[in-house]
Amino acid sequence: MRRRRRRQTGTAWLFLLPGLLLFVVFRLYPLLEGLRVSFTNARLGRATYQYVGLANYTRLADDTRFGMSLWNTAFYTVASTLPILAVPLGLALALNRGALRNVLRGVFFFPFTLSVVTVGLAWLWLLDPVVGPFNYYLRALGVPARSWLADPATAMWAIIGTTVWWVTGYYLVVYLAGLQDIPRELYEAAALDGACGWRTFWAITLPLLRPVLLFVVVTHVIGSFQIFGQVFVLTMGGPGDATRTVVQHLYETAFQNFFQFGAASAMAWVLFAIIMVFSVLQFRLLRGHTEY
Amino acid sequence: MNRRAFLAGVAAATAAWPRRGAAQPKTSISYWNGLTGADGKVMDELIEQFTRETGIRIEQQRLPWAELYPKLQVSVPAGEGPDLALIHTVEVPHFANDGVLETIDDATSAGKGFRGDDYLPATWQGGTFHGKRYSLPLDVPQHLLYLNVKVMKEAGLTGADGKPKVPASRDDLVSMAKKMTKGDSFGFAIGTLNPGRYTWGFHNLLWQNGANIYTPDLKRAGVSDAAALEVAEFWAGLAGGLGIAPPANANCRDAFIANRLGMWIAGSWNFTGLREAKVDFTAAPVPKLFKQPVVWSMPHQYAFPKPKSADRAKRDAAWTHIRWMTDHVADWTLRAGQVSASRKAHSDPRITGDPVLKTLLGQAPNWQVGQPTPKWVAAENLTRPVIESVYTGQKPAKAAMEDLARQINALPD
Fold first, then answer.
1. Is A38-286 a domain of CATH 3.40.50.720?
2. Subunit contact B74:A45, Cβ cutoff 8 A
3. Where are the domains of chain A?
4. Best mutation target, B197, B238, B249, to test chain A (most A CBs within 10 A)
């Protein structure tokens, strides 16, 4: 019996081995190598480097641009979470039934099939302050035009709007899957008891969507802390540093500002720690057993 | 199809398949460049012609300059670099400093027919660092003043001959620009995309005022010196107090094409596109807006990234290509719009007969390039958001430039 179990365990490990090897070589090793590099003054392309202890980490405390990037990233994460949760959910509720639902799902999902660069360039043109159609129609309506991406008061909101437009289709599909998992009998029972509309939404739909909400929040928050593409294409972190995010700061430190890989690795590990803390917190806050 | 017909078809296809050794190119070299615009297509055509004439095949890898340079920095030490690369002059010092590029000794380059006397000094000198040569110049991307005839005519800024007036000074430029600025139309801009963070334009103005990113001894940042602050104040006024330029993130090229921009200082690489877009424009030398009529330029340079192991055939093939391009540089100038670094093509009547190319060549005595320090590119990257914060009025010019000086001085050695 024991021998059989041992053989089964061995077989299981054999099946796991290829995946495990790939994980170790392509995930774990670079991660730990990054940690090691973060304690050095390594520069990309230079063979020699010295260990500098915690210097790269302590320097981050004085790096005002890193502080600004952290603040901007946090602002983006907080400010974008509600629309990312609400807009696709609203659309999912509307598209859960109806004759045109399949067509409309396709229409809303389409932007998500585009690359971030395509989305960024399209919105860059739409929001162009001189030749962009957005301002053109605002002027036609008598509303004063403005430079949405060049104004520190609106630039981050423009990025959030672009992101919501881009990813809504994806979360819409996730929500729809969640909505279709909720047994219809619950709604029928609620209707017999006289509940409908908002009451069923608050009492049945939302609580039973908890696992989906958890998934959306966690993936969105992790993605938000890593936001880079939209910012890089739309504003390059500007105006000034008004929309500069941590990953952009990290990228520029590593690949543009003198290839400082040691300093950039330290930033990456700080970001990793922050994401880890937030992910654990979210799991603790939103976890709960859902019974149908 | 029966079996016999099928076999006959296969035999015919096999016979038609190019055999090894039959009309095979002699050598193949890899060549990385960042010619992602219309000039890339011209380079493709010239390379096809080169391969036809010499039998040497060139495998190009083309990616945006900003991605090309980190890739070179990583690939070359790993022995995975190309046989030949096209880089900007300001990249030479840091690549040379990091051992990414091979040195080119004078005897070798002279033996291949490359001599300093054949080139304009700023371009030839740009290929050296600490007294050693690392690259050979191809052409000279530079600034130019584009004048939109329609916009200027509507503002009454054309002469009796119908040609747009050219500003002779900063005051002149501002007063002319104000006449053209109304609503979403602007009189003046410097830069193609995101004029607020257009460092090359800012450098041009700095150089015109005798200032620079670093002091002449390259020991500390010079961006908070009085001459640089004067430029920063002007920069702040463009979209601010003077209100003559588009917002920081505007697409100035599109604005010029849409006749919403009157005077535009931008790169020489734009003019072939403007012709294709059928914009009614003329070109003039970059006006003297400060003390001297300096024109920003950034020559492209051919460089040999250090190979893992020496391959004489590939190196000879790369030399052959550089020589061929230098000999055919007039074609490159005419089709890609970049004037050559070598003087030979400058007297070609096809080039002197083109008004824009003639203007570009006329600016040659005023060309200036970035300072020869490995920190130049990193300092430029730090400059971008700072000058944008000045342009948009987020920060006062003095405070911003002092902050920039502090950041530049803190760059590691």
1. no
2. yes
3. 1-34, 38-286
4. B249
